[in-house]
Amino acid sequence: MTTFTKTILFTDTDGCARFRDEPIALTEGKPQARLSQLMSSGGYQLRHSPVGFRSTFHCSDHAQWVFILSGHMEIGLQDGSSRVFSPGEHFYSEDLLPAGATFDDKVHGHWSRQVGSQPLVTLFVRG
What we know:
The chain is mainly beta.
C-alpha cells in the first residue's frame, strides 16, 4: 500500500453534504511500515453514544477526523443516502456551514446515529 484513502464528508458548492475519497501518499517510513507525512492536530475528544442515539441535521463546528472505536455509526445526507462506518473505519468531517450562510436543515448538514445493539464509541481528532 502506497496510499491511505481519506474518506471526506464535505460541504459542496451547493451547500449540501457529500462524500468523496482522496488518497494520502505514504511516503515516509520503511517498506514494511509506510507512513504519511506528519499532520498537525488541534486536540481530540472521545464520545460514547448509547443505543438509540440519533442526531438531527447539523454541520460540523470544525474539521475533524472521526474514528469508530466500537459500535457502528451511520451518517445520512440531505439526498437520502447514507453510509455506515464500523470499528476500525474513519472519515474526515469537513461538512461546515458555508461562510455567510444561515443554517437550513432542509439544505445543510448531515445526521448521525448509532446502529445495532452496541453503544457507539468514537474518537474525534481536530484537523
